[in-house]
TrEMBL record:
Pfam family, one: Esterase
Protein keywords: Signal
Organism in which the protein naturally occurs: Decorospora gaudefroyi
InterPro entries the record matches: AB_hydrolase_fold (IPR029058), Esterase-like (IPR000801), Mycobacterial_A85_antigen (IPR050583)
Signal peptide: 1-16
Domain of life: Eukaryota
Matching PANTHER family: ENTEROCHELIN ESTERASE-RELATED, IRON(III) ENTEROBACTIN ESTERASE
Name used for this protein in its record: Alpha/beta-hydrolase
Length: 691
C-alpha cells in the first residue's frame, strides 16, 4: 500500500550525511532502550528516514500536543538508513554531539533522562527519498503529499500503535512495531501528480488547479507540481470574456482546499462574497462587495509546507514555477486583468515575507503588496536574534537567553519559548534543516547549499554558535539590504518600488517580527526619505489578523481603491518605467550559481604549503585550506608521510608553521568535522626540504 505514495522509485543510497549502522554496534543491555521493528508487508523496500519517538503523559495521546510552547511530551529522534523488516533499530541514550547518527531528544537530550513512570508511547517514521538535483547535489528529503508537512505524521509515514510503557529506571528493553501507515486523504490514484499538492473538489466559485512544473521537475529530477486555489467573484461568467477582474495573490501556508481569507471555512465571508454584498449593520446599509479573483497557492516543498514563493538554492525555482508557469495558466483559464497594477500580493507572516519579496523581485509582474507582520525583513533582527553582530543565536553577550515566542498577559510580556528551546525541539524532528519547521526552513530559503548538499546553517543548531560567513550568504534575501544596495543600481528599486510597498505589524508581535520591520523602515527611509515604504506599526497588537487589523471588507475596499487609482485611467497610473519588462532580482540562474552545488565546491580548497626552496631549520608555513563555515579543523605535519607532531586543532583561515629538523618531503594534513558533514581529510602537496 505504500507504493502508490511515491511516484519515483525509492532509491536508497549514500547520502552526504554520515551513515551509521543503527543496530548491532554496541551492547545495549545496561541501558533503557527501545527496539523498533516493522511489520512485514508494510514497506516494499528498505528506507532511509527519521524515527521520532514520543513519550506522553499516561492517559494522553502523543499527537495531542507536540507544540514547542506547551507539549508535555518527551520527544526523541534518530536518523535511520536502510531500515526494513530485516534491520530493526534500537534507540538508546542520546547526546548533543552525535545528532546526525545518534539519538537526540527534547526537552532532555537522552532517553536515560526520562524519569521512571508510566507513559503513553508512539513512534513515527518519516520516510526520505534520495534524489540528485540538476546542479549535482544529492539529498535525502521528504516530499510532502498534500498534508501540510506535519512534524511526524505526514501521509505515508509509518507509525506504531500507542502503547503504555512503564519505565522502571533500570536496564530495560521496550519493543515496538511499526504496524500502520498514515493514510492519504482525498486521493483516488488517478489525479495528475498523485497526492502531491493534494486533490480537491471544485465548487461553482472555488476552483483548484494543479500543474506539473517543468522547472521544478528539472531541478529535482522527479515530477514536481504546484497548485492554486482560485475563488471567483460574484457574477463571474465564464462566457463573458470582456469583464475582467484584478487578482489578489494571497501568500501563506498550506491552504489545503480552502480559498484565500478562509473562503470556504468562514461561512459569513463565503456567503457575502458569493452574494457580492457586504452586509450592513445598524449604522450602515448593505453595499456591493469588491470584485477580485482571489488566488492562493499550493506549493508544499521539501523542507516546509510552502516554498516562500521565491527561487532558492535549497528548494529550487519555486518563484519561477508560480510566476512563470502557474500564473500564466491561471490567466488563461480565468478572466483576469493581465497588467501589474491589477496583480496584488498580500499575506501575513510567512505570506507577509513572500508577498513583499515578490513585489521587490518582480515589480514587472505585480503592482503592490500589502504585507502583514512579515518574517524578518532585515537580518539585523532575525526574530530577536541580532544575526549580523551576535556571536551566539541563543545567548546574548550578557548571558541571557534570546526569546523566540512571547505573548502579553494583562500588558505584561510572557516568554513562551526561547530560540534555543525551539531549535532543539526542531532538531528532534529532522537533522540538516529537515524538521519541516520554522527555523529550519529559514535556513533552507535564505541560505545557500552547504558542501554537504543541505542548507548551510547560519549557526550550530545545538550550541547556537553563529558563523558570520554563512550569514553573509543570506544577504540576497535580506530584503532591506537588497533594496538599499539596489536603490540606484541598474535595478533602480528606489524609483520602481516607491509607493508600492505597504507593511503592517503590531508592536507586540508574538515572534518579534516588529523588530525586522523597524530595521527595514529605518534603512529604507534613510535612502528613500521618510515613508518610502508605507509602514504601519500598531501599538500593543499581536501577530495575526488582516492588514492594519482592518475588518476584512474594509481591507478589500482599500485594495480596490489602490487598484482603481493605479489603473491606466486612474488618478495615479502605475508608470511603465516602474514596471519595465524585466525582473529585478532573484533570477534563478544567478541564485543557483551563487548557492548551488558548484558554488559549494568552489568554496573548498586543500591546504597549501608555501615551501619554495625550503631548508632544514627554516620555518615552513601553510594555509589550512578553505572549508565551509563551522567546520572544525585538526591538523598534522608529516615528513616523508610519517607524523612528526601530534595533531593539533587550528582555526579556519589560520596559517600554521613548522620547522623541519631533517630533510625530506613535508606535508600538512587537515581533517575537518562538522555536524551533518562527512568527516574529511585534505592533504597539501608534498614539498621537498633540502639542506
Ligand atoms: C494510565 O492510564 C490508564 C488510562 O489511560 C489507566 O488505566 C492506568 O491506570 C494509568 N496508569 C498509571 C500508572 O497511572
Ligand atoms: C546539551 O546541551 C545543552 C545546551 O548547551 C545543555 O544544557 C545540556 O546539559 C547538554 N546535555 C548533554 C547531555 O550534554
Ligand atoms: C530534564 O530537563 C528538565 C527541564 O529542561 C530539567 O529540569 C531536568 O533536570 C532534566 N533532567 C535530566 C535528568 O537531565
Ligand atoms: C491505521 O491507522 C488508521 C488511521 O490512519 C486507522 O483508521 C486504522 O484503524 C489503523 N489500523 C491499524 C491496524 O491500527
Ligand atoms: C457569522 O455571523 C454570525 C452572526 O453575526 C455569528 O454569530 C457567527 O459567529 C459568524 N461566524 C463566523 C465564522 O464568524
Ligand atoms: C448597533 O449594534 C451594536 C452591536 O453590533 C450595538 O452594540 C449597538 O448598541 C447598536 N446600536 C444601535 C443604535 O442599535
Ligand atoms: C541582557 O541584554 C538584553 C539586551 O541585549 C536585555 O534585554 C536584558 O535585560 C539583559 N539581561 C541582563 C540580565 O542584564
Ligand atoms: C488579568 O487581569 C484580569 C482582570 O484584571 C484578572 O482577572 C486576571 O487574573 C489577570 N491575569 C493574570 C494572569 O494576571
Ligand atoms: C540615488 O541617487 C540620487 C540622485 O542621483 C541621490 O540623491 C541619492 O543619494 C542616491 N541614493 C543612494 C542610496 O545611493
Ligand atoms: C499609508 O497607507 C495607508 C493605507 O494603508 C494610508 O492611509 C496612508 O495615508 C499611507 N501613508 C502615506 C504617508 O502615504
Amino acid at each position: 500500500m505504500l507504493k502508490a505514495f511515491f511516484l519515483a522509485s525509492l532509491t536508497v543510497g549514500a547520502s552526504a550525511i554520515p551513515t551509521a549502522r543503527s543496530y548491532g554496534e554496541r551492547d545495549y543491555s545496561t541501558d533503557f532502550n527501545i527496539k523498533l521493528s516493522v511489520a512485514s508487508g508494510l514497506l516494499d523496500a528498505p528506507t532511509d528516514g527519521r524515527i521520532v519517538l514520543m513519550f506522553a503523559p499516561n492517559g494522553t495521546e502523543p499527537l495531542e500536543d507536540t507544540d514547542v510552547t506547551s507539549s508535555p511530551n518527551k520527544i526523541f529522534g534518530k536518523n535511520v538508513y536502510n531500515f526494513g523488516p530485516k534491520h530493526p533499530v534500537t534507540l538508546s541514550g542520546g547526546s548533543n554531539e552525535s545528532t546526525a547518527t545518534g539519538v537526540f531528544g527534547w526537552p532532555n537530550v537522552s532517553l536515560s533522562d526520562i524519569n521512571p513512570g508510566t507513559y503513553s508511547v508512539q513512534a513515527f517514521l518519516t520516510r526520505y527519498e534520495t534524489v540528485t538535483r540538476s546542479d549535482g547535489s544529492k539529498v535525502s528529503v521528504r516530499f510532502p503529499c498534500g498534508d501540510g508537512a506535519p512534524n511526524v505524521n505526514g501521509f505515508g509515514s509509518l507509525m506504531t500503535s500507542i502503547t503504555d510503557v512503564e519505565i522502571s529506571g533500570g536496564a530495560q528493553i521496550v519493543e515496538l512495531t511499526f504496524n500502520n501507515v498514515t493514510a492519504v486523504e482525498a486521493f483516488t490514484g488517478k489525479e495528475i501528480g498523485g497526492c502531491h499538492q493534494g486533490n480537491y473538489e471544485d465548487t461553482d466559485t472555488l476552483k483548484h488547479i494543479k500543474i506539473r512544473s517543468k522547472k521544478l521537475s528539472k531541478f529535482w529530477g522527479r515530477h514536481m507540481y504546484v497548485g492554486a486555489n482560485v475563488v471567483l467573484p460574484a457574477g463571474y461568467d465564464a462566457m463573458d470574456k470582456k469583464t475582467r477582474y484584478p487578482v489578489i495573490y494571497n501568500q501563506g501556508h498550506w491552504p489545503a482546499g480552502q480559498g484565500a481569507y478562509r473562503y470556504g471555512k468562514d461561512e459569513n465571508f463565503t456567503a457575502a462574497w458569493d452574494a457580492g454584498v457586504i452586509p450592513g449593520d445598524n449604522t450602515t446599509a448593505d453595499r456591493p462587495a469588491p470584485k477580485f479573483i482571489l488566488v492562493t497557492f499550493r506549493h508544499e516543498a521539501p523542507y516546509y509546507d510552502d516554498s516562500y514563493a521565491v527561487n532558492t538554492a535549497n528548494l529550487g525555482p519555486y518563484g519561477d514555477a508560480l510566476n512563470e508557469e502557474l500564473i500564466p495558466v491561471i490567466e488563461n483559464m480565468f478572466h483576469t486583468i493581465r497588467a501589474p497594477y491589477a496583480r496584488v500580493q498580500d499575506g501575513g507572516s510567512t505570506g507577509g515575507w513572500a508577498s513583499i519579496a515578490n513585489l521587490i523581485y518582480r515589480p514587472d509582474l505585480f503592482g503592490v503588496c500589502f504585507s502583514s507582520y512579515p518574517d524578518s525583513l532585515d537580518f539585523h533582527r532575525h526574530q530577536d536574534i541580532e544575526l549580523y553582530t551576535a556571536s551566539n543565536a541563543y545567548k546574548r553577550a550578557n548571558g541571557s537567553s534570546v526569546p523566540s515566542i512571547r505573548t502579553h498577559v494583562n500588558g505584561t510580556e510572557v516568554i513562551l519559548a526561547t530560540a534555543e528551546l525551539e531549535n532543539r525541539w526542531e532538531l528532534t524532528f529532522g537533522t540538516a534543516s529537515r524538521s519541516f519547521n520554522q527555523w529550519d526552513v529559514w535556513d533552507a530559503v535564505f541560505g545557500v547549499q552547504g558542501y554537504n548538499n543541505y542548507p548551510l546553517e547560519p549557526w550550530d543548531k545545538v550550541t547556537g554558535e553563529i558563523y558570520p560567513e554563512a550569514v553573509e550568504y543570506w544577504k540576497p534575501f535580506d530584503l532591506s539590504n537588497y533594496v538599499v544596495t539596489n536603490f540606484n543600481s541598474s535595478r533602480n528599486l528606489g524609483a520602481a518600488l516607491a509607493g508600492r510597498i505597504f507593511i503592517y505589524v503590531g508592536t507586540w508581535d508574538n515572534y518579534y517580527l516588529n523588530e525586522g520591520v523597524t530595521e527595514f523602515q529605518k534603512r529604507t527611509d534613510a535612502v528613500g526619505g521618510s515613508g518610502w515604504a508605507n509602514v504601519t506599526m500598531l501599538p500593543e497588537k499581536a501577530h495575526g489578523g488582516n492588514y492594519q487589523a482592518r475588518e476584512i471588507w474594509d481591507y478589500l475596499e482599500l485594495v480596490e481603491r489602490w487598484v482603481r487609482d493605479h489603473a491606466p485611467d486612474g488618478r495615479t497610473p502605475l508608470s511603465a518605467s516602474s514596471t519595465a519588462p524585466c525582473t529585478r532580482g532573484n533570477v534563478w540562474e544567478e541564485v543557483i550559481q551563487y548557492g548551488g552545488r558548484q558554488a559549494a565546491i568552489k568554496r573548498q580548497a586543500d591546504p597549501k604549503i608555501d615551501g619554495e626552496n625550503a631548508k632544514v631549520g627554516e620555518e615552513v608555513s601553510a594555509s589550512v585550506g578553505r572549508w565551509d563555515p563551522g567546520v572544525k579543523l585538526i591538523a598534522q605535519w608529516l615528513l616523508d608521510r610519517k607524523p612528526v607532531c601530534v595533531s593539533f586543532s587550528v582555526e579556519q583561515g589560520a596559517v600554521v608553521k613548522y620547522t623541519p629538523t631533517a630533510k625530506g618531503y613535508v606535508q600538512l594534513l587537515v581533517t575537518g568535522e562538522k555536524r551533518n558533514y562527512v568527516t574529511e581529510t585534505r592533504k597539501s602537496k608534498r614539498v621537498f626540504v633540502g639542506r
